[in-house]
Amino acid sequence: HINGLFKTDNSLAYPNAEILVPAREHKYWMDDGEMSRASTPRIQGVFKNVRQVMRGDVLKRLRTYEWDREVIRGITAVGTPGHTPGHTCHIIASGAGKVYVQGDLTHVPFLFVRNPGWRPYYDHDPVQAEVMRRKVYDMLVAEKMPVQGFHYPFPALAHVEKTTTGYREIPVVWNPMI
Questions:
Q1: Residue 169, Cα to own-chain centre: how many angstroms?
Q2: How many beta carbons lie within 10 A of that of residue 151, not counting itself?
Q3: pLDDT value at position 174?
Q4: What single DSSP character describes residue 164?
Q5: Could you give the CA distance from residue 165 to residue 50 in angstroms, rounded to a whole number?
């Protein structure tokens, strides 16, 4: 996802933007010891890519933030390690309204929301990722909080309900009016 910071000519896509990164995520991927222990070619490739992106003008604009704190007013970081060691989701709140922005907690909701015990190969720690999915979806059900999923189909907003085998996403009907 960080490759979107650059245009095809390798200049910054948003040259005036502050770049906010979860502290644990940044620390992990920038740690030479962790990089030396990368267990698969895929993870080695991710380390290489992160190092290519996190340099120069990106580092000049980078600010890290901690879990369980507001990143900016109304947006709170929630630690959800598993997909990556520092994977982070966010809760956006305005007045009494909230939405959970889940990032890569779940890919392909019709598979992994409905079957949270399935462990895709691209999760860094599949066991921890499953624990986080179940924890988050139990919370979303209990609080009746809608979830916005990057990998959900349009309009990428749903409610979650518990089923006998996992959970089920109920897409929110698209409304062009705010």
A1: 18
A2: 14
A3: 84
A4: S
A5: 37
Reduced to 3 states, what is the DSSP secondary structure of residue 54? Answer: coil
CA distances for 49 relative to 2, 39, 41, 45, 56, angstroms = 9, 16, 12, 6, 14
CB 86 within 8 A of CB 25: yes
Question: Contact, 167 vs 117, CB < 8 A?
Answer: no
- Name the pTM for this structure: 0.90
> d(Cα 149, Cα 164) in Å, to the nearest integer?
22
Q: To 10 degrees, the CA torsion angle through 104, 166, 171, 102?
A: -20
Q: Which residues pair with 158 in a beta bridge?
A: 147, 171
How far apart are alpha carbons 77 and 25 in whole angstroms?
Answer: 12
Distance CA 117, CA 131 (A): 9
pLDDT averaged per 10 residues in sequence order, the chain, 178 residues: 91 94 97 94 94 93 97 97 96 96 87 89 92 96 94 88 92 80
The one-letter amino acid code at 78 reads V
Query: Cβ contacts of residue 73 below 8 Å, gap of 6+?
Result: none
What span, in angstroms and rounded, lies between the C-alpha atoms of 110 and 132? 17
Distance CA 176, CA 174 (A): 7
Distance CA 67, CA 69 (A): 5
